[in-house]
Each structure stands twice: as structure tokens, then as C-alpha cells.
């Protein structure tokens, strides 16, 4: 249960064997899976193979999200370019879906990226029909840079993020 960092009462932990089945079940739910780049269902064998490869990708960081000693979701950071990262997350725990915790995770993950990684921007991509995710990303400072029938591509600089975080501070202060 190694905590990599903690922000806004969310613990970003290394994923452990005991986490992967719950993460897989959440990830396979239609309301989560159909919003992902890879929308296929993940088998237990595929999930196990993914877990066993986690340490081999040095430019990717995967986190089990914990709140009040409960696994609530998943987040990742990919450093695919020298100056940028891409992130993804989902809150799978039914009690916390649609709550402020997603904002706490998004802000905390962005802070970690800009503080701990040598990047100047963070990228995201969202399916166009996922209006909730688009509003969520825009609240975190993302700007739409391109859109096609399949995807909306967004990015934010540290300055974009800091301006958005300033607007979110009254909400975040409840979790400080």
C-alpha cells in the first residue's frame, strides 16, 4: 500500500494485486468503458498481464485512488513526449461517482504532473458525446485544440491550470 502522493484527501497509491479485480470490474462498466480510447472489455487474464507489465513502462504512472481507506478509482499519467503528459482517470466507486472527488483527483494529478515531471502541458482526449467529461476538463483549465467525429483533443499549460485551480480553491478547501 505504497502512497506515491496525497492531495485533497485522495491517496494516489501504487496499484497492488488486490486492487486489480475491482479496477477491472469498474473499467468494464459501460458508463466508464465507452468513454475510453480502448472501449473493449478487459478479461481477468488481460488485467493480470497489464498489472505484471506496469513496472516495465517507465514513462507511464498508474495509480489506485483511495479516499478514507476505500479504493474509489484509477488514474494514469503517460509521458509520451518530452514536454507533455496525457492523463486519464475514473471514479468507479458508486458512492463517489459524480462527486467533488473527481475534481480533487484531477487537480491533484495535474499538480503532481507540473511539480514532479519536466513538462509544459498536459493533454487529454474525450469522446464528443461525453459532455460531462468535457465540462470537467474545461473546469481544470483544458482548452479544446482540435475536434473530429471521434474525439475532442484538449490541452492545458501550467498557467491555464493555475488559473483554473484558483477558481476551484473554495471547493478544494473542504478537502485540504
TrEMBL record:
Pfam families: Acetyltransf_3
Domain of life of the native organism: Bacteria
Name of the protein: GNAT family N-acetyltransferase
Domain N-acetyltransferase: 10-159
